[in-house]
Amino acid sequence: MKCNIRVSVITPVYNGAEHIRDTIESVLGQTYKNIEYIVVDGGSTDRTMEIVKEYEPLFQGRMKYVSEKDQGIYNAMNKGIRMSVGQLIGIINSDDYYDRNAVQNIVDNMGNAEYQVVYGYLGMLKGNRYYGLSKKAHNGLETAMLPHPTCFVTRGVYQKYGLYLEWFKASADYELMLRLRSKKDVAFIQVKTVIAYFRAGGISSGARCYLEGEIARVMHRIITPWEFGRRILCFIKKRSLEWLLDDKRTAQQT
User: Fold this and answer.
1) Cα–Cα distances in angstroms (integers) from residue 113 to residues 71, 104, 159, in the given order
2) pLDDT at position 64 over 60
3) I need a labelling partner for 124 at 20 to 30 A (CA). Which of 20, 131, 166, 195 fits?
4) Of 16, 198, 195, whose CA–CA distance to 98 is shortest?
5) Distance separating alpha carbons of residues 169 and 153, to the nearest angstrom
6) How many CA atoms lie within 13 A of 210 on its CB side?
7) What is the pTM of this model?
8) Phi, psi (rounded to 5 degrees) for 63
């Protein structure tokens, strides 16, 4: 029975005291109860771990945590995966939170394949204000990343195809999904309801350029050099237009 599927939820965090209560409570309040919760803290200097420990008794033995210096967010994610025992693994960051029926909806929509990525819609927030919905799907993965906070991956996928590549600082989740999309035995299943909510922060142009560079490196690993070049040109044109529009909106608001 699907209610017997053990689900591991992992939260990587560093100095996340501002919003981590929302994240923890969204896991604690899931309608699906066969969940273990793992918090991987990078050695926070704020009240993050004080808050985490406050909630530990409420999980009644279903919470694990570690707090130590790490090598970045993907190192923390990999550490959490290695600590987990669930058949299905989800990762939710400390700025984000789940819909209360998220895990139940994911489990209900799982197929029978050994290797699966099950994901859904992502609600977008600025602060606590809702401003949109991401319905990005795996059939468009070559041009846009799936909403990672909604993704749940079967343990066998990580065992067979590996974990996150830690030398990427911002795009290892995208690289992993592209890597899995190229495998014929990995089933992608979209659940057509909101699974998680994501808080967007301000991204400086410098950070955005860095992210674009990482995405280019990801694509270079996946496709032929000719196709890589064509896509990069299209990508640059698209992003240049987006930045121009952003600059115009900013000017109008000031």
Assistant:
1) 33, 18, 15
2) yes
3) 166
4) 195
5) 21
6) 8
7) 0.81
8) -115, 140
CA-based nearest residue to 21, from 121, 75, 97: 97
Two structure tokens written together for 115: 């290797």
Please determine, for residue 208, whether its predicted confidence score (pLDDT) is greater than 70. no
| CB contact at 8 A, 106 and 41 | no
How far is the C-alpha of 16 from the C-alpha of 75, rounded, in Å?
17
- CA 40 – CA 54 distance, rounded (Å): 15
- Going from the C-alpha of 90 to that of each of 54, 126, 205, 229, the distances in angstroms are 22, 23, 30, 34
Span 167-187, pLDDT tens digits? 888 889 999 999 999 999 999
Question: What token pair was written down for 210?
Answer: 């860095």
Task: Give the pairing of strands 35-41 and 63-67.
Answer: parallel
Give 74-130 pLDDT, tens digit per residue.
999 999 999 999 999 999 999 999 999 999 999 999 999 999 999 999 999 987 788
HEC string for 159-215: HHHCCCCCCCCCCHHHHHHHHHHCCCCEEEEEEEEEEEEEEECCCCHHHHHHHHHHH
Share the mean pLDDT of the chain.
85
Q: What integer pLDDT is reported at residue 214 of this predicted model?
A: 52
Residues 188-204 have pLDDT tens digits of: 999 999 999 999 863 33
Give the integer Cα–Cα distance in Å for 156 and 160: 6
Instruction: Name the CA radius of gyration of the chain, rounded.
Output: 18
Dihedral angle sign, alpha carbons of residues 70, 75, 79, 80: positive
Strands 129-134 and 115-126: antiparallel
Note the Cα 77 to chain centre separation in Å.
10
